[in-house]
Amino acid sequence: MAERSTAAVDVADNSGDEPPAAEAAKATADGAQIQDGRASDGPMPEPDGGPQNAKKPKSTAPAAAPELHSGHKLARRYRLEECVTRLDGFSSWRAMDEKLRRAVGVHLLPADHPRARSVLAAARSSALLGDPRFVQVLDAVEENDLVYVVHEWLPDATELTALLAAGPLEPHEAYQLVSQISQAMTAAHREGLAHLRLTPSAILRTSTGQYRIRGLAVNAALRGITSDTPQRADTEAIGALLYASLTQRWPYENDAYGLTGLPKGVGLIAPDQVRAGVHRGLGELAMRALANDGATASRQEPACTTPEELAKAVAAMPRIRPPEPAFTAPPEYQHTTYQQGVYGRPAVHSGVTAATPLPAVAPPPPLQSRTGRVLKWGVAALLIAALGLGSWQLADTLLRGKQSDGNHQTPAPKNDDAPAKKTPVPLAIKGAKEYYPDGTAQDLAGVPDTYDGDVSTYWHTRSFREGPDMKASYKAGVGIVYDLGSEQEVTSASIGLRYAGDHTTATLYGADSLSTSAPIDQKKKIAAGTTSDNSLTLTAEKPVKTRYVVLWITAMPMSGLDQYSGEGYKQAITDVKFSG
Fold it and tell me: Which residue, 132, 103, 215, is CA-closest to 563?
């Protein structure tokens, strides 16, 4: 009886996997491939010119690919619909998960295929990572002489191959690409997973602007690709993706993935020598990641040899803001005609005759008769008498005050010398870094988004399975350390949060430096608080003088699936303001 082993299954309804790649050959009914408009009976060749430290498989005769057809059902659940690749003894399909009613992708190969064991192991390891920045493995099964791997299908995503076919990416988009991909691969390598086949067709951009990586560990296992230096191989591959995004050229001599290679015999040349107007900082970053035989960027900065080094280099760059939206002129202002005397009057409706205005009435003439004169002199006499009586009473009151025996107490004057309560003054943030003393960062590139004045951008944490208190997830907390430029008296902080719910707990600490790893228990506590809302205000009992302030989050609410992470306990900071 065939043994069936299943990896962790993610049932989140974020369907999809890999839309057919531009260079991927679709299988015909007899197993032939279509490439460059021509039929080919052999397997689709690997493009040359990739990272040199990734070993290509030996030329061994692969087992025959399973002869399956559209409509075939696996595990009474996954119905095959369209074959998108048939290569080297395995095939890849778009299928329908009839249980969850969503599209999925499926890799199929015979159980006796020489790489079947390694494919299963890679798929199960990738499924355990559970990082939403990667296309998730949903199932890894061996049954009925077949091995198949089921993974997400992202119908709304676009391959980087298709994006580059339209032209190079603008600087902000290229910055987002290298930032997100390097951070994701840093997390993967910390868990011992490498990709080894980071090509433009392995990168997908979703409709929300997030970049997703497909085929972690699995694509290389399917093709038998290995490397003695996996971190260097993946870093160089990210550098190649960035280079191609800036120049629309592949940074090797041979053409690949629909891109033209560099001129033969010239070697690796800087992106700004290939195309005018390339962002200098990103171009130098690509050269540092692609460094070969000592060739580095123009400023001779050290090469980036791991995804983590590359992610830190990206985070250290000045933030590249998105382009301003195109200005659309408002419609021309229509001047209205002001008619004197009509403002505030009810409008005259059509069909109704306006009333004839009444003639002006003249004021009555002044009293000039004998009776009028008598009244006028009478009123004047009364006024004079009233003024005289008032003056006499005032003088009498003053004289009585002088003759008193001194028992009358004059009210004490107000003390204008008492110190007034100090009005809080906003404190400018000069810089910041993510604070992660346990060595596991959350979102290095998103730190500047917490004080850029734009509440639509934010720094986010990962999604944790236990909470809301983070100690339940075996993690003391997450946070950011801010630099105020000089010592300031810090009295309060206003923190904007992306996720509401039960509950978020944060503490402010004064720090001695911008260190990302100094122990939290050695810092001076300023204030602490808890909220279930989208904002949190922390106020100190008395001001604390410090230059560096750590915002330390120790509890986070449960939130649903979004573009960065799955359902779990998580939080994101949109805006931070300090006062002193």
Answer: 132
